[in-house]
């Protein structure tokens, strides 16, 4: 079961009562206020320090400015396709707060001078909520709804553009990036739906811009109940884990599957892109998986990398062979059947493979392998012989262990 919790001193994106927010409630909270002078809004977003919530944590104002400054007609896209199996925040937002997302899209269009918007998603209830909200919103920005399949790579920004243009939802080589040449060749802002909702609330709540921009939606999961939580910037993982009884976890999988495995010391990690990166991990989309008492970090790594290998779009040779080799070698280590050179190979691949695919999937797989070696050398030693009960059943490619139901 997935709960919904706010740890903020006041409600921001998680309202006091859940259920889809209709137009009247959204308007009562200051939504759809007249569009301000675009440069002033851009300055407000920049001053608040808002960072994108799709995973990379790029400053939102810098991305908006890049699209605005590119020549030509512009397009804005609300990206609601969350491919990380352990994340539910984007689908929850589209289902429960569609007006905040659409208002953010309207404001992003004003800032970038875009004449056309698009909501990109794969979730049926989210699509219904968005279509209802589109029908009643007081905005004349033309907005299309584009469906995609639910895969790990479908939300990657070049895959988003390719799908909206009628192709498959698969990443393309960069450059060009969408801000240079995106939908139909136009400079395009592809923004995560949480980023857009926070832009809308920064505009509606000029008294609370720091709180709105710093807060974060996080999905917690593990052996017990899951939760979608909105927390202040910099909240430590221990605080989050204690909400669901995960405080004694041996390991945490960070950032969905993107941020790697973290062992001893995870309790002191804060939800902060820069500090997580400095610690060798990544915050990604803010999804955290905590191991349970009967888990083995190696089994978690095997399942995560097997899932990623199965999700490879199979476009880049290095990704197909790299994720496959990582998954097979990790599985052999977990079964106690690996050769003496297995750890050396995993170390070499974890250092050499990142950055060589067209998207971040290969990087995610390599980071899981690398962080496993860094944080759990003793656990790898104990797998020299078969017999780890947790690893005996490891390797499903369907990502079931990490999949969280949307609350
Ligand atoms: S890195 Fe892998 S998943 Fe990403 S585009 Fe290349 S083949 Fe596809």
Automatic annotation (TrEMBL):
<feature type="domain" description="NADH-ubiquinone oxidoreductase 51kDa subunit iron-sulphur binding">
    <location>
        <begin position="298"/>
        <end position="343"/>
    </location>
</feature>
<dbReference type="Pfam" id="PF10589">
    <property type="entry name" value="NADH_4Fe-4S"/>
</dbReference>
<dbReference type="InterPro" id="IPR037207">
    <property type="entry name" value="Nuop51_4Fe4S-bd_sf"/>
</dbReference>
<dbReference type="InterPro" id="IPR037225">
    <property type="entry name" value="Nuo51_FMN-bd_sf"/>
</dbReference>
<dbReference type="InterPro" id="IPR019575">
    <property type="entry name" value="Nuop51_4Fe4S-bd"/>
</dbReference>
<comment type="similarity">
    <text>Belongs to the complex I 51 kDa subunit family.</text>
</comment>
<keyword id="KW-0479">Metal-binding</keyword>
<dbReference type="InterPro" id="IPR011538">
    <property type="entry name" value="Nuo51_FMN-bd"/>
</dbReference>
<dbReference type="Pfam" id="PF01512">
    <property type="entry name" value="Complex1_51K"/>
</dbReference>
<keyword id="KW-0004">4Fe-4S</keyword>
<protein>
    <submittedName>
        <fullName>Fe-S-binding domain-containing protein</fullName>
    </submittedName>
</protein>
<keyword id="KW-0408">Iron</keyword>
<keyword id="KW-0411">Iron-sulfur</keyword>
